[in-house]
Amino acid sequence: MTALIVGGDKLGNIPDVLTERGIQEYIHWPGRKKGMRKKSIPTNIDMVIVLVDYIEHNLTEIIKEQSKTMNIPCVFSKRACSDLAMKLDNCKNCKLCKIS
Questions:
Q1: Nearest by Cα to 85 from 1, 13, 9
Q2: Taking the domains of the chain in order of start, what are their residue ranges?
Q3: Fewer CB within 10 Å, N- or C-terminus of the chain?
Q4: Superkingdom of the source (predicted)?
Q5: CB 67 within 8 A of CB 44
Q6: Which DSSP string do the residues of the chain spell out, in sequence order?
Q7: What's the predicted TM-score (pTM) here?
């Protein structure tokens, strides 16, 4: 499973949280600059994770719309590992998610 993480300048221990939940690969976009709005979600992504406390607001809306159009699950979380772990655990029940 591959995730796109948008937001957060540094990920800290977040990769450990992802690995524990079966997300082996990830792509990270810092998400603070205007130029990020022009990017599109890659086609090989299984899930989008938006770190809401470290991202430009307009980019959040763009990512949300793109993930909805592509039918990719999108999780919104704070940059805290505990919050992300809770959101991913809740996402296990989602029919779109493939989290183990």
A1: 13
A2: 2-91
A3: C
A4: Bacteria
A5: no
A6: -EEEEES-S--TTHHHHHHHTT--EEEEE---SGGGGG----TT-SEEEEEGGGS-HHHHHHHHHHHHHTT--EEEE-SSHHHHHHHHHHHTTSSS----
A7: 0.88
